[in-house]
Write a structure and sequence with these properties.
By secondary structure, this protein is mainly α. The chain is built from six helices and two strands, in the order H-H-H-H-E-H-H-E.
Length: 157
């Protein structure tokens, strides 16, 4: 029916649980990464550099090593699967490791927009203050998929 050979293996539930525990032991979660919404697996060391992303990689490393000084702001643009999100997380993870004094936050464009709209929609001063405090208190704000804002009508106040 499939015209292919398949290898089938069976694992006991206790073996699956044992493997899962070992995997969890190998992942080190930095408390700053969790607070910043960063995936600790996305680092510069795990990024695959190629011709299509070499410049973006070097720019991201430069930003991580000199936050606020080079490429400020850094805007990464490119096709799907070239590593833009990976590089953003790598910058944040690098900063959390080497500059723990900095407050780093990664959000998607959708999350940022939803937070903004909700702060306006609630009509409460506290909600507006919470939004301002959240986003103004960070030293490094990374917004992923920012290009999606161009596809929406912007609200000006």
């Amino acid at each position: 029916m499939f015209n292919k050979e398949f290898n089938i293996s069976f694992l006991l539930e206790k073996d699956l649980n044992e493997n899962k525990e070992k995997e969890e032991e190998n992942i080190i979660y930095n408390i700053n990464s969790a607070k910043a919404n960063l995936n600790p697996k996305y680092t510069f060391e795990s990024f695959i550099v190629g011709d299509s992303n070499k410049f973006a990689y070097m720019a991201a490393v430069s930003v991580a090593e000199n936050p606020g000084k080079t490429y400020n702001p850094l805007f990464l643009y490119g096709g799907v699967g070239l590593g833009k999100t990976h590089l953003l997380h790598a910058v944040g993870n690098y900063l959390n490791e080497h500059r723990p004094d900095l407050n780093v936050l990664y959000v998607t464009c959708e999350k940022f927009t939803n937070d903004f709209v909700e702060s306006i929609r609630s009509g409460k001063d506290q909600s507006n203050l919470d939004f301002r405090d959240k986003y103004r208190s960070v030293d490094v704000l990374m917004i992923d998929d920012i290009q999606f804002i161009s596809n929406n009508t912007m609200i000006t106040i």
